[in-house]
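STRUCTURE:
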């Protein structure tokens, strides 16, 4: 595990920092520190324009292989980019799912024709993606998805019917990758396929879900005989489970260090307020702040352990514990924020209510231990796949 950076890496850090300082200004200055979790509804069109600015600077796909249009940067330089981006207040990425999930999956499992057709739109910051995994009756249990897909009579199109839920920014997406059941009598992880579906069609309906924060970045997505071309199948029919698991491995890549820098920004804000309002004089709150700081360091070192292994989408033990670790830590940070704010955390001036950054943090972090794989499911994954313990008894589907 590498913890330090070389002189060349630090020179690269200066390059990234300079570029961000220059370009997160003018029309993009209002985007600084905006658009993250709980704030993803903010400035969608401006953040899409920011994606195109990143593309012009060749800052999309920095870790992609050169043959796929990326810069092929080393792991250490990718870490530096994500850390400096968050440190500079870079806005939440509208292209994160395309760059961080779809791109690596296409590189690993897509055909050359699929790569040539779909990767440029991501790299150019002009095509945006959403994720069609969770379902109302399946939740974090991907092996229980019931969305169905079948080839039409011509064999040229897949017809998809079903419902997905908690789909981030589906209302802003051009494409959705959908895990669907393509073998009618299949159960569990058998008979699933991985399909890429264009969103601009009448047979797809996106319905927003209003959260505690009053915002609606999550959606339900209804597919009623939605159409996608046969060549938008990744891999072979029945490969969906293997590809879905690899994609989750890519999700736990270098961007986790950028996520942690965003957490660091939030912790800094809590400390600033604690000093200003006197909460820092409370020994119990000081102890909790110290525990939050220490916990964030542990998350960083665990991420560096993850990144020391293969970057092929396989889930190491370190990767399997990451979601459980960060979601629990971040949920506790939300509680700490409210306790530091004190009575002010429960007061707003009046309608229309505009939550402060820390109020929004608290409310949104109530969902951290649920979305992206609930803590209960994560503990099963760790027990069964990382520790080799007996599988939990499962009843009939």
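SEQUENCE:
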């Amino acid at each position: 595990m590498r913890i330090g950076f070389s002189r060349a890496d630090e020179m690269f850090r200066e390059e990234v920092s300079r570029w961000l300082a220059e370009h997160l200004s003018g029309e993009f200055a209002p985007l600084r520190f905006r658009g993250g979790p709980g704030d993803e509804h903010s400035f969608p069109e401006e953040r899409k324009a920011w994606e195109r600015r990143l593309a012009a600077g060749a800052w999309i796909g920095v870790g992609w292989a050169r043959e796929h249009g990326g810069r092929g940067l080393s792991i250490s330089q990718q870490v530096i980019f994500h850390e400096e981006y968050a440190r500079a207040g870079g806005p939440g990425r509208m292209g994160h799912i395309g760059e961080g999930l779809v791109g690596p999956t296409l590189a690993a499992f897509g055909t050359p024709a699929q790569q040539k057709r779909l990767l440029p739109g991501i790299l150019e910051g002009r095509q945006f993606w959403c994720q069609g995994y969770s379902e109302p009756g399946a939740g974090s249990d991907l092996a229980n998805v019931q969305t169905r897909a079948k080839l039409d009579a011509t064999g040229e199109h897949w017809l998809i019917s079903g419902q997905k839920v908690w789909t981030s920014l589906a209302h802003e997406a051009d494409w959705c990758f959908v895990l669907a059941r393509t073998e009618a009598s299949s159960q569990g992880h058998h008979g699933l396929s991985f399909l890429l579906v264009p969103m601009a069609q009448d047979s797809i309906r996106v319905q927003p879900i209003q959260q505690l924060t009053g915002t609606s970045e999550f959606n339900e997505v209804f597919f009623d005989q939605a159409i996608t071309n046969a060549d938008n199948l990744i891999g072979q029919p029945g490969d969906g489970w293997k590809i879905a698991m690899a994609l989750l491995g890519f999700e736990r890549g270098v961007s986790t260090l950028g996520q942690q820098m965003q957490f660091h920004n939030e912790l800094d804000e809590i400390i600033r307020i604690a000093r200003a309002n006197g909460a820092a004089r409370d020994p119990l709150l000081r102890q909790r702040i110290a525990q939050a700081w220490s916990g964030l360091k542990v998350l960083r070192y665990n991420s560096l352990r993850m990144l020391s292994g293969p970057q092929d989408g396989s889930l190491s033990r370190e990767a399997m514990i990451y979601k459980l670790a960060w979601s629990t830590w971040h949920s506790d940070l939300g509680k700490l924020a409210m306790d530091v704010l004190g009575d002010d955390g429960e007061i707003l001036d009046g309608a229309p209510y505009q939550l402060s950054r820390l109020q929004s943090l608290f409310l949104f972090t109530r969902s951290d231990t649920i979305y992206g794989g609930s803590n209960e499911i994560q503990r099963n994954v760790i027990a069964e796949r990382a520790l080799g313990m007996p599988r939990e008894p499962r009843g009939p589907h």
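REMARK: The beta strands are 129-132, 148-151, 157-164, 175-181, 192-198, 204-209, 218-229, 233-234.
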